[in-house]
Amino acid sequence: MRVLLQRVRQSSVLVEEQVIGQIGRGVLLLLGISKDDNEKDAKYLAEKCVNLRIFDAPDGKKNHWSVKDIGGDILVVSQFTLYGDCRKGRRPGFDKAARPEQANALYIFFVEQLQQHELVVQTGQFQAMMQVELINDGPVTYLLDS
Question: Which residue among 3, 11, 80, 100 is least enclosed by CB atoms within 10 Å?
Answer without folding.
Answer: 100
